[in-house]
Amino acid sequence: MGRRMRRAPTWCWPGDAFYDRDMAGLMLPFLERASQAGARWLLVGDPGRAYLPRERLTEVATYDVPVERVIEDADIKPATVWRLSDPE
């Protein structure tokens, strides 16, 4: 993920990619490079992880998603779709 992009992807839709500090530290710069290279559809699906960089994202939609109770301690969990915000 640390390489320069030669050509921007048209879209990038990582799901649940901000589950820990290390992965978040890789994913946000990757999305920013894709944006700088001209990518148009940069969406992130996230179930509310602690390392989601909310200050760099804009909420698009929220869905109730069926999950395994044994893993999540619930039958339904909200998941949000975010898009990368323009840098300020």
Polypeptide structure, described:
This protein has helices at 21-36, 69-72; strands spanning 11-12, 41-46, 57-66, 76-84. The chain has 88 residues and is an alpha+beta fold. It has one domain (11-84). Helix 1 (21-36) links the parallel strand 1 (11-12) and strand 2 (41-46). The mean pLDDT is 87.
What tags apply to this protein structure?
4 strands; 23% helix; 88 residues; alpha+beta; elongated; 4-stranded mixed sheet
Summarize the entry for a quick read:
This protein is α+β, with helices and mostly antiparallel strands.
- The run of helices and strands is EHEEHE
Mean pLDDT: 87
Structural class: alpha+beta
Main-sheet strand order equals: 1-2-4-3
Q: Into which percentage range does the β-strand content fall?
A: 25-35%
Characterize the largest beta sheet: strand count, sense, and whether it forms a barrel: 4 strands, mixed
- The tally of beta strands, per DSSP, is 4
| Shape field | elongated
Q: Total helix count?
A: 2
Question: What is the secondary structure topology, with strand pairs?
Answer:
Blueprint: E1 11-12, H1 21-36, E2 41-46, E3 57-66, H2 69-72, E4 76-84
Parallel strand pairs: 1-2
Antiparallel strand pairs: 2-4, 3-4
